[in-house]
Amino acid sequence: MNICIDASNIRAGGGLTHLFEILKVATPENHGIKKVIVCAPQSTLDKLVEKPWLEKITHKLLESN
Length: 65
Fold this sequence. Notes:
Blueprint: E1 2-6, H1 14-25, E2 35-39, H2 42-45, E3 54-57
Parallel strand pairs: 1-2, 2-3
């Protein structure tokens, strides 16, 4: 199973902190999840931890308002 997180509107504040902290301690492989994909602006993705199961995706449209 794969999970995709739409973080397209998360740039700062509590939402970013929440996402960062969840991904920092997550163990998806213990629950049968092979990959977690986060779709967000590059500035958000740069703040997330690197994990072997984490895929970060951005698009030019996510960089604008």
